[in-house]
Amino acid sequence: MEEPENNITVLCVGPKGSGKTTLLKKLQDVEGIDYTYSPVPTIGTNIYYLYYLNKHGKKQMLCIREVGGEMVQLWSNYLDGIEKVIFVVDTSNLCQISAGAVMFYTLLAEPKLQQAKFILVLTKMDAAYRQMRNEALLMLQFARLSKELPSAPVLLEASPLTGMGLDALRDHITNKQKSITK
After folding, report:
1. Is 20 flagged in the annotation as binding?
2. Cα 167 vs. chain centroid, distance in angstroms?
3. 91 within some domain
4. CB within 8 A of 6, min separation 6: which ones?
5. Which CATH number goes with the domain that contains 147?
6. 100 in a labelled binding site
7. Separation of alpha carbons 82 and 8, rounded Å
8. Per-residue pLDDT tens for 150-168?
9. Neighbours of 91 (CB within 10 A)
């Protein structure tokens, strides 16, 4: 099989315990991600490779760097060349949502990320009651962001344990969400 082309760099960040590692492992189709899975918090960074076929049937590789929530003060060291940012927030944890909002706004204001596309992923929807989604969006001031930013962040709900939202996330990070008509 040929080597993939176009290594796209994606950054995955969010507060500690938001579910970044589980989400990315599930995107890679790692076995054993279920209700008994208990990841170790990421202290440092992890690199994940996601392989997919582009619209021309060519094999592509997507490189995703996860930076642990414990390293929030060092996130700025990982922003060069980033095209997409996956920001993960645990909707079952109100305290994390408010802390996450500060982190999210800091990244949105970062000059190195002015051209980057942001994907806001609300995780653990299977563990949260439905109203938590609305609380999260209010705390993150998502409606205001969508109006004020030239390129509004994409909002996705996901649960790595049930698989909900994973296809949509994969489509957004691999650019398959846009249908091109000629």
Report:
1. yes
2. 13
3. yes
4. 54, 60, 61
5. 3.40.50.300
6. no
7. 8
8. 888 999 998 887 888 999 9
9. 30
Range of the domain at 31: 5-173
41 is in an annotated binding site: no
Q: What is the tens place of the pLDDT at every residue in 78-137?
A: 999 999 999 999 888 888 888 899 999 999 999 999 999 999 999 877 666 667 788 888
Tokens of 64: 């995703």
Is 181 part of any known ligand binding site?
no
21 is in an annotated binding site: yes
Residue 178: inside a domain: no
Q: Is residue 85 part of a domain?
A: yes
Sign of CA dihedral 64, 78, 119, 125: positive
SS3 39: coil
Q: Taking the model in full, what pTM does it have?
A: 0.86
Query: 15 a known binding residue?
Result: yes
- Whose CA is closest to 142, among 129, 154, 157? 154
Interatomic CA distance for residues 158 and 127, integer angstroms: 11
14 is in an annotated binding site: yes
Q: Is 160 annotated as a binding residue?
A: no
